[in-house]
Specification:
The complex is a heterodimer. Chain A contains 7 helices and 8 strands; from the N terminus they run βαββαβαααβαβαββ. Chain A has a single domain (about 1-190), classed as Rossmann fold, CATH 3.40.50.300. Chain A is an alpha/beta fold. Chain B has 2 domains: about 5-55 and about 185-320, no CATH class; about 60-180, Alpha-Beta Plaits. In chain B, helix 1 (about 5-20) packs across helix 9. Chain B is α+β, with helices and mostly antiparallel strands. The radius of gyration of chain B is 33 Å and the shape is rod-shaped. Chain B has a 4-stranded antiparallel beta sheet. Chain B contains 10 helices and 4 strands, in the order H-H-E-H-H-E-H-E-H-E-H-H-H-H. The chains are: A alpha/beta, B alpha+beta. The interface of A and B includes residues 22, 62, 72 and 80 of A.
Chain lengths: ~190, ~325
Protein backbone atom coordinates (compact mmCIF):
# COMPACT_ATOMS: atom_id res chain seq x y z
CA UNK A 1 0.00 0.00 0.00
CA UNK A 2 1.27 3.46 -0.90
CA UNK A 3 0.48 6.58 1.08
CA UNK A 4 0.92 9.72 -1.00
CA UNK A 5 0.29 13.40 -0.52
CA UNK A 6 1.91 16.82 -0.75
CA UNK A 7 4.13 18.21 1.97
CA UNK A 8 2.06 18.98 5.05
CA UNK A 9 -0.72 16.59 3.98
CA UNK A 10 -0.24 14.51 7.16
CA UNK A 11 1.93 11.62 5.95
CA UNK A 12 4.49 11.98 8.73
CA UNK A 13 1.79 12.39 11.36
CA UNK A 14 0.18 9.21 10.05
CA UNK A 15 3.50 7.35 10.44
CA UNK A 16 4.08 8.76 13.89
CA UNK A 17 0.63 7.64 14.93
CA UNK A 18 1.03 4.14 13.53
CA UNK A 19 4.43 3.73 15.24
CA UNK A 20 2.96 5.14 18.46
CA UNK A 21 5.42 7.98 18.48
CA UNK A 22 2.39 10.14 19.04
CA UNK A 23 -0.87 9.39 20.79
CA UNK A 24 -4.08 9.98 18.82
CA UNK A 25 -6.01 12.96 20.21
CA UNK A 26 -9.28 11.28 19.23
CA UNK A 27 -10.59 8.04 17.76
CA UNK A 28 -8.77 4.72 17.97
CA UNK A 29 -5.96 3.05 16.02
CA UNK A 30 -5.83 -0.72 16.20
CA UNK A 31 -2.68 -2.22 14.76
CA UNK A 32 -1.50 -5.83 15.04
CA UNK A 33 -4.03 -6.28 17.82
CA UNK A 34 -2.78 -3.34 19.89
CA UNK A 35 -5.09 -0.44 20.78
CA UNK A 36 -2.62 2.41 20.36
CA UNK A 37 -4.45 5.09 22.34
CA UNK A 38 -4.40 2.86 25.44
CA UNK A 39 -0.86 1.56 24.98
CA UNK A 40 1.37 2.13 28.05
CA UNK A 41 4.95 3.44 27.74
CA UNK A 42 6.41 0.09 28.80
CA UNK A 43 4.36 -1.79 26.18
CA UNK A 44 5.44 0.37 23.24
CA UNK A 45 8.64 -1.68 22.58
CA UNK A 46 6.57 -4.90 22.45
CA UNK A 47 4.21 -3.33 19.91
CA UNK A 48 7.07 -2.03 17.77
CA UNK A 49 8.59 -5.51 17.62
CA UNK A 50 5.57 -6.59 15.61
CA UNK A 51 6.53 -4.09 12.91
CA UNK A 52 9.56 -3.34 10.82
CA UNK A 53 10.66 0.19 10.05
CA UNK A 54 12.53 1.52 7.06
CA UNK A 55 13.70 5.13 7.08
CA UNK A 56 14.48 7.59 4.34
CA UNK A 57 17.91 8.27 5.94
CA UNK A 58 18.55 4.54 6.60
CA UNK A 59 19.32 5.05 10.32
CA UNK A 60 22.10 2.50 10.53
CA UNK A 61 24.37 2.56 13.56
CA UNK A 62 27.60 3.94 12.08
CA UNK A 63 29.92 2.04 14.41
CA UNK A 64 28.37 -1.37 13.64
CA UNK A 65 29.00 -3.40 10.50
CA UNK A 66 26.19 -4.69 8.26
CA UNK A 67 25.83 -7.99 10.10
CA UNK A 68 25.68 -6.33 13.53
CA UNK A 69 23.21 -3.67 12.37
CA UNK A 70 20.82 -6.44 11.36
CA UNK A 71 21.63 -8.70 14.31
CA UNK A 72 20.99 -5.75 16.62
CA UNK A 73 17.23 -5.95 15.96
CA UNK A 74 17.35 -9.64 16.96
CA UNK A 75 19.27 -8.91 20.15
CA UNK A 76 16.55 -6.41 21.06
CA UNK A 77 13.94 -9.18 21.06
CA UNK A 78 16.24 -11.49 23.04
CA UNK A 79 17.17 -13.96 20.29
CA UNK A 80 20.02 -16.36 21.10
CA UNK A 81 23.39 -16.48 19.33
CA UNK A 82 22.71 -19.57 17.23
CA UNK A 83 19.46 -18.17 15.84
CA UNK A 84 21.15 -14.87 15.05
CA UNK A 85 24.04 -16.62 13.26
CA UNK A 86 21.55 -18.61 11.22
CA UNK A 87 18.97 -15.93 10.39
CA UNK A 88 21.08 -12.85 9.62
CA UNK A 89 22.93 -14.38 6.61
CA UNK A 90 19.57 -15.60 5.25
CA UNK A 91 18.09 -12.11 5.29
CA UNK A 92 21.29 -10.54 3.93
CA UNK A 93 21.09 -13.07 1.13
CA UNK A 94 17.50 -12.05 0.47
CA UNK A 95 18.50 -8.38 0.03
CA UNK A 96 21.64 -9.37 -1.91
CA UNK A 97 24.22 -8.19 0.63
CA UNK A 98 25.67 -11.42 1.97
CA UNK A 99 29.13 -10.46 0.62
CA UNK A 100 29.08 -7.13 2.47
CA UNK A 101 28.32 -8.51 5.94
CA UNK A 102 31.49 -7.04 7.50
CA UNK A 103 31.34 -3.65 5.78
CA UNK A 104 30.60 -0.52 7.79
CA UNK A 105 27.67 1.68 6.68
CA UNK A 106 29.90 4.46 5.32
CA UNK A 107 31.52 1.94 2.96
CA UNK A 108 28.16 1.26 1.25
CA UNK A 109 26.19 3.14 -1.42
CA UNK A 110 22.80 4.66 -0.58
CA UNK A 111 20.97 1.76 -2.20
CA UNK A 112 23.01 -0.78 -0.26
CA UNK A 113 22.47 1.06 3.00
CA UNK A 114 18.75 1.03 2.37
CA UNK A 115 18.84 -2.70 1.72
CA UNK A 116 20.57 -3.15 5.10
CA UNK A 117 17.73 -1.10 6.60
CA UNK A 118 15.27 -3.39 4.89
CA UNK A 119 17.08 -6.49 6.15
CA UNK A 120 16.89 -5.08 9.68
CA UNK A 121 13.16 -4.42 9.29
CA UNK A 122 12.62 -7.96 8.02
CA UNK A 123 14.73 -9.94 10.44
CA UNK A 124 12.09 -10.43 13.14
CA UNK A 125 9.45 -11.45 10.57
CA UNK A 126 7.08 -8.55 11.26
CA UNK A 127 3.48 -8.53 10.10
CA UNK A 128 3.77 -4.97 8.84
CA UNK A 129 6.72 -3.05 7.38
CA UNK A 130 6.43 0.71 7.56
CA UNK A 131 8.66 2.44 5.01
CA UNK A 132 9.08 6.21 5.19
CA UNK A 133 10.15 7.35 1.70
CA UNK A 134 12.62 4.47 1.39
CA UNK A 135 13.76 5.61 -2.05
CA UNK A 136 14.24 9.26 -1.09
CA UNK A 137 18.01 9.03 -0.66
CA UNK A 138 18.95 6.50 -3.35
CA UNK A 139 19.66 6.77 -7.09
CA UNK A 140 16.55 6.42 -9.30
CA UNK A 141 17.65 3.11 -10.80
CA UNK A 142 18.11 1.76 -7.26
CA UNK A 143 14.62 2.97 -6.32
CA UNK A 144 13.01 0.34 -8.48
CA UNK A 145 15.20 -2.34 -7.01
CA UNK A 146 14.17 -1.35 -3.48
CA UNK A 147 10.48 -1.27 -4.27
CA UNK A 148 10.80 -4.53 -6.19
CA UNK A 149 12.28 -6.06 -3.07
CA UNK A 150 9.39 -4.70 -0.98
CA UNK A 151 7.02 -6.11 -3.58
CA UNK A 152 8.52 -9.59 -3.19
CA UNK A 153 8.29 -9.37 0.59
CA UNK A 154 4.67 -8.32 0.21
CA UNK A 155 3.93 -11.30 -1.98
CA UNK A 156 5.39 -13.53 0.74
CA UNK A 157 2.65 -12.27 3.07
CA UNK A 158 3.92 -9.16 4.84
CA UNK A 159 1.90 -5.94 4.70
CA UNK A 160 3.98 -3.06 3.36
CA UNK A 161 2.99 0.49 4.14
CA UNK A 162 5.11 2.83 2.07
CA UNK A 163 5.00 6.61 2.17
CA UNK A 164 6.38 8.14 -1.01
CA UNK A 165 6.61 11.21 -3.23
CA UNK A 166 7.58 9.34 -6.35
CA UNK A 167 4.54 9.10 -8.64
CA UNK A 168 6.21 6.89 -11.24
CA UNK A 169 6.81 4.21 -8.59
CA UNK A 170 3.17 4.37 -7.55
CA UNK A 171 2.12 4.14 -11.19
CA UNK A 172 4.38 1.21 -12.06
CA UNK A 173 3.57 -1.00 -9.05
CA UNK A 174 -0.11 -1.70 -8.92
CA UNK A 175 -1.03 -1.54 -5.28
CA UNK A 176 -3.59 0.21 -3.16
CA UNK A 177 -2.95 3.97 -2.99
CA UNK A 178 -4.20 6.24 -0.24
CA UNK A 179 -3.95 9.96 -0.88
CA UNK A 180 -3.85 12.41 2.01
CA UNK A 181 -4.64 16.10 1.95
CA UNK A 182 -4.84 18.39 4.98
CA UNK A 183 -4.91 15.40 7.27
CA UNK A 184 -7.76 13.64 5.51
CA UNK A 185 -8.02 10.75 3.07
CA UNK A 186 -9.09 12.22 -0.25
CA UNK A 187 -8.64 9.09 -2.39
CA UNK A 188 -8.30 5.37 -1.74
CA UNK A 189 -7.76 3.24 -4.85
CA UNK A 190 -7.54 -0.47 -4.20
CA UNK A 191 -6.04 -1.23 -7.64
CA UNK A 192 -3.51 1.57 -7.78
CA UNK A 193 -3.38 4.41 -10.29
CA UNK B 1 16.60 -9.37 28.77
CA UNK B 2 18.62 -11.99 30.65
CA UNK B 3 19.63 -13.64 27.38
CA UNK B 4 20.90 -10.31 26.12
CA UNK B 5 22.91 -9.35 29.21
CA UNK B 6 26.18 -10.74 27.84
CA UNK B 7 25.59 -9.02 24.52
CA UNK B 8 24.76 -5.70 26.19
CA UNK B 9 27.84 -5.98 28.41
CA UNK B 10 30.06 -6.53 25.35
CA UNK B 11 28.29 -3.68 23.55
CA UNK B 12 29.06 -1.35 26.47
CA UNK B 13 32.75 -2.30 26.31
CA UNK B 14 32.81 -1.93 22.52
CA UNK B 15 31.18 1.50 22.78
CA UNK B 16 34.09 2.76 24.89
CA UNK B 17 36.37 2.13 21.91
CA UNK B 18 33.85 2.95 19.18
CA UNK B 19 33.25 6.40 20.70
CA UNK B 20 36.87 6.82 21.69
CA UNK B 21 37.05 10.58 21.21
CA UNK B 22 34.21 11.16 23.63
CA UNK B 23 35.65 8.46 25.90
CA UNK B 24 38.97 10.28 26.03
CA UNK B 25 37.18 13.57 26.76
CA UNK B 26 35.15 11.98 29.59
CA UNK B 27 38.21 10.26 31.05
CA UNK B 28 40.18 13.52 30.85
CA UNK B 29 37.51 15.44 32.76
CA UNK B 30 37.07 12.67 35.32
CA UNK B 31 40.81 12.24 35.88
CA UNK B 32 41.27 15.99 36.38
CA UNK B 33 38.44 16.17 38.92
CA UNK B 34 39.42 12.98 40.74
CA UNK B 35 43.07 13.97 40.98
CA UNK B 36 42.18 17.36 42.42
CA UNK B 37 39.85 15.71 44.93
CA UNK B 38 42.51 13.13 45.79
CA UNK B 39 45.15 15.77 46.32
CA UNK B 40 42.75 17.79 48.48
CA UNK B 41 42.17 14.67 50.60
CA UNK B 42 45.91 14.09 50.89
CA UNK B 43 46.61 17.70 51.85
CA UNK B 44 43.85 17.64 54.49
CA UNK B 45 45.04 14.32 55.88
CA UNK B 46 48.60 15.59 56.11
CA UNK B 47 47.53 18.82 57.80
CA UNK B 48 45.52 16.78 60.27
CA UNK B 49 48.49 14.54 60.91
CA UNK B 50 50.67 17.61 61.45
CA UNK B 51 48.16 18.98 63.94
CA UNK B 52 48.03 15.65 65.74
CA UNK B 53 51.79 15.59 65.96
CA UNK B 54 51.69 19.06 67.44
CA UNK B 55 49.05 17.93 69.92
CA UNK B 56 51.22 15.04 70.96
CA UNK B 57 54.12 17.39 71.44
CA UNK B 58 51.97 19.51 73.66
CA UNK B 59 52.73 18.59 77.22
CA UNK B 60 52.34 20.14 80.65
CA UNK B 61 54.80 20.00 83.48
CA UNK B 62 53.36 19.03 86.87
CA UNK B 63 55.69 20.21 89.63
CA UNK B 64 55.37 18.33 92.88
CA UNK B 65 54.93 19.70 96.31
CA UNK B 66 58.36 18.67 97.59
CA UNK B 67 60.85 20.38 99.85
CA UNK B 68 62.24 22.55 97.04
CA UNK B 69 58.77 23.74 96.14
CA UNK B 70 58.55 25.30 99.58
CA UNK B 71 62.13 26.55 99.59
CA UNK B 72 61.95 28.06 96.11
CA UNK B 73 58.30 28.90 95.44
CA UNK B 74 57.51 28.88 91.77
CA UNK B 75 55.12 31.80 92.13
CA UNK B 76 58.06 34.02 93.09
CA UNK B 77 56.97 34.64 96.70
CA UNK B 78 59.47 35.17 99.48
CA UNK B 79 62.06 32.45 99.80
CA UNK B 80 62.13 31.27 103.45
CA UNK B 81 65.42 32.05 105.18
CA UNK B 82 65.50 28.89 107.22
CA UNK B 83 66.24 25.94 105.01
CA UNK B 84 65.33 23.43 107.67
CA UNK B 85 61.73 22.89 106.90
CA UNK B 86 59.77 20.33 108.82
CA UNK B 87 58.57 17.40 106.73
CA UNK B 88 54.89 18.09 107.38
CA UNK B 89 55.11 21.33 105.37
CA UNK B 90 55.26 19.40 102.09
CA UNK B 91 53.73 16.23 100.72
CA UNK B 92 56.26 14.57 98.46
CA UNK B 93 59.28 13.54 100.45
CA UNK B 94 61.08 11.10 98.18
CA UNK B 95 61.13 9.50 94.74
CA UNK B 96 58.70 6.71 95.72
CA UNK B 97 56.06 9.23 96.75
CA UNK B 98 56.69 11.23 93.57
CA UNK B 99 56.17 8.12 91.45
CA UNK B 100 52.96 7.38 93.35
CA UNK B 101 51.69 10.83 92.36
CA UNK B 102 52.71 10.07 88.79
CA UNK B 103 50.55 6.95 88.91
CA UNK B 104 47.60 9.00 90.10
CA UNK B 105 48.05 11.41 87.19
CA UNK B 106 48.35 8.53 84.77
CA UNK B 107 45.00 7.18 85.97
CA UNK B 108 43.21 10.25 84.54
CA UNK B 109 41.31 9.44 81.38
CA UNK B 110 42.69 12.29 79.28
CA UNK B 111 46.34 11.53 80.09
CA UNK B 112 48.21 9.46 77.56
CA UNK B 113 51.67 9.52 79.12
CA UNK B 114 53.43 10.53 82.34
CA UNK B 115 57.19 10.74 82.57
CA UNK B 116 58.74 11.18 86.02
CA UNK B 117 61.61 13.65 86.14
CA UNK B 118 63.81 13.72 89.21
CA UNK B 119 65.24 16.98 90.55
CA UNK B 120 68.66 16.07 89.19
CA UNK B 121 67.27 15.26 85.76
CA UNK B 122 65.33 18.53 85.82
CA UNK B 123 68.50 20.47 86.51
CA UNK B 124 70.26 18.59 83.74
CA UNK B 125 67.43 19.48 81.34
CA UNK B 126 67.63 23.06 82.40
CA UNK B 127 71.35 23.11 81.73
CA UNK B 128 70.92 21.56 78.33
CA UNK B 129 67.92 23.51 77.12
CA UNK B 130 67.95 26.91 78.67
CA UNK B 131 71.51 27.94 79.33
CA UNK B 132 73.46 29.23 76.42
CA UNK B 133 77.21 28.98 76.49
CA UNK B 134 79.05 28.43 79.71
CA UNK B 135 77.05 26.49 82.27
CA UNK B 136 79.97 26.10 84.63
CA UNK B 137 78.42 28.36 87.26
CA UNK B 138 75.53 25.98 87.61
CA UNK B 139 77.91 23.58 89.29
CA UNK B 140 77.04 25.35 92.56
CA UNK B 141 73.44 24.23 92.16
CA UNK B 142 74.24 20.55 92.06
CA UNK B 143 73.67 18.10 94.85
CA UNK B 144 72.03 19.51 97.98
CA UNK B 145 71.88 22.99 96.46
CA UNK B 146 69.70 21.87 93.53
CA UNK B 147 66.67 24.19 93.56
CA UNK B 148 64.62 22.10 91.17
CA UNK B 149 61.45 20.33 92.26
CA UNK B 150 60.64 16.82 91.24
CA UNK B 151 58.17 16.93 88.43
CA UNK B 152 56.36 14.95 85.76
CA UNK B 153 56.02 15.54 82.04
CA UNK B 154 52.33 14.86 81.29
CA UNK B 155 51.02 14.32 77.75
CA UNK B 156 47.30 14.63 77.02
CA UNK B 157 45.49 12.45 74.52
CA UNK B 158 43.36 15.40 73.45
CA UNK B 159 43.22 19.11 74.00
CA UNK B 160 39.47 19.60 74.17
CA UNK B 161 39.36 20.87 77.76
CA UNK B 162 42.94 21.85 78.31
CA UNK B 163 42.34 24.19 81.26
CA UNK B 164 40.07 21.74 83.03
CA UNK B 165 42.67 18.98 82.57
CA UNK B 166 45.29 21.20 84.14
CA UNK B 167 42.98 21.89 87.09
CA UNK B 168 42.29 18.19 87.56
CA UNK B 169 46.00 17.42 87.70
CA UNK B 170 46.62 20.27 90.09
CA UNK B 171 43.86 18.91 92.35
CA UNK B 172 45.83 15.69 92.88
CA UNK B 173 47.47 15.60 96.27
CA UNK B 174 51.18 16.19 95.93
CA UNK B 175 51.01 18.37 92.84
CA UNK B 176 52.09 21.91 93.51
CA UNK B 177 51.70 23.63 90.22
CA UNK B 178 50.96 22.74 86.60
CA UNK B 179 52.63 24.68 83.83
CA UNK B 180 51.63 24.40 80.20
CA UNK B 181 51.05 26.57 77.19
CA UNK B 182 47.31 26.70 77.24
CA UNK B 183 47.06 29.30 74.47
CA UNK B 184 49.15 27.19 72.13
CA UNK B 185 46.96 24.20 72.91
CA UNK B 186 43.82 26.14 72.13
CA UNK B 187 45.23 27.46 68.87
CA UNK B 188 46.36 24.02 67.79
CA UNK B 189 42.95 22.67 68.65
CA UNK B 190 41.18 25.41 66.69
CA UNK B 191 43.44 25.06 63.66
CA UNK B 192 42.95 21.32 63.72
CA UNK B 193 39.16 21.72 63.69
CA UNK B 194 39.35 24.40 60.99
CA UNK B 195 41.51 22.18 58.80
CA UNK B 196 39.05 19.31 59.14
CA UNK B 197 36.02 21.50 58.31
CA UNK B 198 37.71 23.41 55.48
CA UNK B 199 39.07 20.17 54.03
CA UNK B 200 35.65 18.55 54.04
CA UNK B 201 34.08 21.69 52.55
CA UNK B 202 36.65 21.85 49.73
CA UNK B 203 36.29 18.14 48.98
CA UNK B 204 32.47 18.33 48.88
CA UNK B 205 32.59 21.37 46.56
CA UNK B 206 35.10 19.63 44.29
CA UNK B 207 32.93 16.53 44.17
CA UNK B 208 29.90 18.61 43.14
CA UNK B 209 31.97 20.37 40.46
CA UNK B 210 33.24 17.00 39.24
CA UNK B 211 29.71 15.60 38.98
CA UNK B 212 28.44 18.68 37.13
CA UNK B 213 31.31 18.54 34.62
CA UNK B 214 30.98 14.81 34.17
CA UNK B 215 27.22 14.95 33.65
CA UNK B 216 27.74 17.69 31.06
CA UNK B 217 30.30 15.57 29.24
CA UNK B 218 27.88 12.67 29.27
CA UNK B 219 25.12 14.95 28.01
CA UNK B 220 27.28 15.85 25.00
CA UNK B 221 27.95 12.14 24.44
CA UNK B 222 24.22 11.44 24.61
CA UNK B 223 23.47 14.18 22.12
CA UNK B 224 25.96 12.61 19.70
CA UNK B 225 24.28 9.26 20.16
CA UNK B 226 20.68 10.36 19.84
CA UNK B 227 20.61 8.58 16.49
CA UNK B 228 21.65 5.32 18.08
CA UNK B 229 19.03 5.68 20.81
CA UNK B 230 16.29 6.53 18.29
CA UNK B 231 17.15 3.45 16.20
CA UNK B 232 17.11 1.25 19.28
CA UNK B 233 13.68 2.58 20.18
CA UNK B 234 12.38 2.17 16.64
CA UNK B 235 13.22 -1.53 16.54
CA UNK B 236 11.49 -2.10 19.86
CA UNK B 237 14.27 -1.94 22.45
CA UNK B 238 13.09 -1.59 26.03
CA UNK B 239 14.41 1.23 28.21
CA UNK B 240 16.65 -1.11 30.19
CA UNK B 241 18.05 -2.63 26.97
CA UNK B 242 19.10 0.86 25.85
CA UNK B 243 20.38 1.77 29.27
CA UNK B 244 22.62 -1.17 30.13
CA UNK B 245 25.36 -0.59 27.51
CA UNK B 246 25.49 3.08 28.48
CA UNK B 247 25.70 2.09 32.14
CA UNK B 248 28.53 -0.37 31.46
CA UNK B 249 30.28 2.20 29.30
CA UNK B 250 30.00 4.82 32.05
CA UNK B 251 31.30 2.47 34.71
CA UNK B 252 34.21 1.33 32.54
CA UNK B 253 35.15 4.95 31.84
CA UNK B 254 34.88 5.67 35.57
CA UNK B 255 37.12 2.74 36.48
CA UNK B 256 39.75 3.63 33.87
CA UNK B 257 39.70 7.21 35.18
CA UNK B 258 40.03 5.96 38.76
CA UNK B 259 43.11 3.94 37.84
CA UNK B 260 44.74 6.81 35.94
CA UNK B 261 43.92 9.25 38.74
CA UNK B 262 45.56 6.96 41.31
CA UNK B 263 48.73 6.87 39.21
CA UNK B 264 48.82 10.64 38.69
CA UNK B 265 48.02 11.34 42.35
CA UNK B 266 50.84 9.01 43.38
CA UNK B 267 53.28 10.79 41.04
CA UNK B 268 52.33 14.28 42.20
CA UNK B 269 52.36 13.20 45.84
CA UNK B 270 55.78 11.54 45.60
CA UNK B 271 57.19 14.63 43.91
CA UNK B 272 55.63 17.03 46.42
CA UNK B 273 56.71 14.82 49.34
CA UNK B 274 60.34 15.00 48.26
CA UNK B 275 60.18 18.76 47.81
CA UNK B 276 58.52 19.29 51.21
CA UNK B 277 61.06 17.04 52.86
CA UNK B 278 63.85 19.04 51.28
CA UNK B 279 62.29 22.35 52.25
CA UNK B 280 61.39 21.56 55.84
CA UNK B 281 63.75 18.74 56.65
CA UNK B 282 60.87 17.26 58.63
CA UNK B 283 59.48 13.79 58.78
CA UNK B 284 57.77 14.20 55.40
CA UNK B 285 54.25 13.19 54.43
CA UNK B 286 51.97 10.28 55.26
CA UNK B 287 53.06 7.26 53.23
CA UNK B 288 50.99 6.91 50.04
CA UNK B 289 50.51 3.22 50.82
CA UNK B 290 48.46 4.03 53.92
CA UNK B 291 46.25 6.41 51.93
CA UNK B 292 45.90 4.10 48.91
CA UNK B 293 42.86 2.03 50.03
CA UNK B 294 40.87 5.12 50.99
CA UNK B 295 41.73 6.96 47.76
CA UNK B 296 41.03 3.88 45.64
CA UNK B 297 37.59 3.46 47.23
CA UNK B 298 36.77 7.16 46.73
CA UNK B 299 37.95 7.14 43.10
CA UNK B 300 36.11 3.94 42.20
CA UNK B 301 32.91 5.18 43.87
CA UNK B 302 33.16 8.54 42.09
CA UNK B 303 33.75 6.78 38.76
CA UNK B 304 30.81 4.44 39.19
CA UNK B 305 28.62 7.31 40.38
CA UNK B 306 29.48 9.28 37.24
CA UNK B 307 28.56 6.27 35.09
CA UNK B 308 25.25 5.78 36.86
CA UNK B 309 24.35 9.48 36.72
CA UNK B 310 25.20 9.53 33.03
CA UNK B 311 23.18 6.52 32.02
CA UNK B 312 20.20 6.90 34.31
CA UNK B 313 19.41 10.53 34.95
CA UNK B 314 20.40 11.98 31.61
CA UNK B 315 19.35 9.05 29.41
CA UNK B 316 15.93 9.16 31.09
CA UNK B 317 15.36 12.48 29.35
CA UNK B 318 15.69 10.78 25.96
CA UNK B 319 13.84 7.63 26.92
CA UNK B 320 10.75 9.40 28.26
CA UNK B 321 10.11 11.08 24.93
CA UNK B 322 8.18 8.86 22.55
CA UNK B 323 9.31 10.90 19.59
CA UNK B 324 12.48 11.14 17.53
CA UNK B 325 12.00 7.88 15.61
CA UNK B 326 10.58 9.58 12.55
CA UNK B 327 11.32 13.17 13.44
CA UNK B 328 14.37 14.72 11.85
CA UNK B 329 17.35 14.35 14.15
Amino acid sequence: MFVVGASGAGKSTFLKLIMREEKPSGGEIISNGYKLSKLKHKDIPMYRRTMGMVFQDFRLIPTMDVFDNVAFAMHVVGADKQTIRKEVPKVLNLVGLQHKARALPFQLSGGEQQRVGLARALINRPKIIVADEPTGNVYPNMSYEIVELLNRINKAGTTILMVTHEHNLVRDFHHRVIMLENGRIVADNAEGV
Amino acid sequence: MRKSTGYLFREGLKNVWANRLMSIASIGVLVACMTIIGLAILVTSNLNKGMNDLQNENVVMAYFNDKNSVLYPIDGSQIPKDKNISEDKYLVHNEEEAKAVCEKIKALSFVSNVEYISADAALENYKNNYVDGDSAYLVYLEGDENPMSMCAKVTFNNLDNFDSYKEQIKAIEGVNVVVGASDVAKTVNNISDAVAVAGLFIIVILMIIALVIVSNTIRVTMYNRKLEISIMKAVGATDSFIRLPFLIEGIVLGLISALLSLGITYGVYALAGDKIKQALGGTGLIAFRTMLPRLAVIYVLLGILAGIIGSFIILSKYLKKEGSEFSAL
